[in-house]
Write a sequence for this structure.
C-alpha cells in the first residue's frame, strides 16, 4: 500500500500562533483528504484536495501531486483546534491510507 | 440532514465472543467503508461496499466479515474476538467510494 508520513508528530502552540503540517506520500494519488479527529474520536473532514489549493476560514491546504506532498496551514490557532490531524490518500482503489497523524495542542 | 450514524457507541466483550457493529450512511450515499483504529495509530481499512457488493478488503483475517443491505446500511461482524481487536471502529460513507468520505462517530470496542 501507499506509505503516508506526517510531520511533526506532535506540536504545541500558543493560542494565536500559526502552524504548518506536512504530509508526504509514496505514490501517485487521486484522492487526498485532511481530517481533524476530536478528543471523542470523531473524524471531521477538513479538505478533499488531491491537487491544488483550497481555503476555508483560518485553514488552508495545498497539495503538490507531482512532488507527492500536501501541506495544511492553520492560522490564528484556537484551543478548539487541538486534536489529531490526519492526512489520508487513495490511488484508484477504494480505500484510504492514513498517516500516523500530527497531535496539536493549543494552549491559552 | 443526518450524518453517518453508528451503533452501539461503546461495547465490552470477552475473548472468543462475536460482535456486530452497525452503520447507516448519509442519505443518497451508496458506498460504505469500515476502518479500525487502535490507540495511537491512524485508521486502517477493513472493507468497502458499494451497491451491496464488496469492492475492497484490507489485510484483516477471515474473522472479520461485513455486508451491505438494500437500504445501503452496513454491518461489520467479528468472530472469535481477540484482545487485539480492541479498537475504535469507524464507518465512512461516500457517493460511490472514490471521492470525499464522511466518517461516523465510531464504535469503541473493548475485548477483555
Amino acid at each position: 500500500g501507499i506509505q503516508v508520513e506526517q510531520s511533526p508528530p506532535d506540536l504545541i502552540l500558543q493560542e494565536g500562533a500559526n502552524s504548518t503540517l506536512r504530509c508526504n506520500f509514496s505514490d501517485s494519488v487521486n484522492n487526498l483528504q485532511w481530517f481533524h479527529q476530536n478528543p471523542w474520536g470523531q473524524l471531521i473532514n477538513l479538505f478533499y484536495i488531491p491537487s491544488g489549493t483550497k481555503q476555508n476560514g483560518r485553514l488552508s491546504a495545498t497539495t503538490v501531486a507531482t512532488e507527492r506532498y500536501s501541506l495544511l496551514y492553520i492560522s490564528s490557532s484556537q484551543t478548539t483546534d487541538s486534536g489529531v490531524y490526519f492526512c489520508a490518500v487513495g490511488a484508484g482503489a477504494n480505500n484510504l491510507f492514513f498517516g500516523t497523524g500530527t497531535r496539536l495542542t493549543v494552549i491559552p | 440532514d443526518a450524518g453517518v450514524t453508528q451503533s452501539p457507541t461503546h461495547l465490552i466483550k470477552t475473548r472468543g465472543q462475536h460482535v456486530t457493529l452497525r452503520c447507516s450512511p448519509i442519505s443518497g450515499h451508496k458506498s460504505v467503508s469500515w476502518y479500525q483504529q487502535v490507540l495511537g495509530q491512524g485508521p486502517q481499512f477493513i472493507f468497502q461496499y458499494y451497491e451491496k457488493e464488496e469492492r475492497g478488503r484490507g489485510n484483516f483475517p477471515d474473522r472479520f466479515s461485513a455486508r451491505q443491505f438494500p437500504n445501503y446500511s452496513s454491518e461489520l461482524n467479528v468472530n472469535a474476538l481477540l484482545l487485539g481487536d480492541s479498537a475504535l471502529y469507524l464507518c465512512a460513507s461516500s457517493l460511490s467510494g472514490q471521492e470525499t468520505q464522511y466518517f461516523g462517530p465510531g464504535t469503541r470496542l473493548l475485548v477483555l
Notes: DSSP finds no helices and eleven strands in chain A.
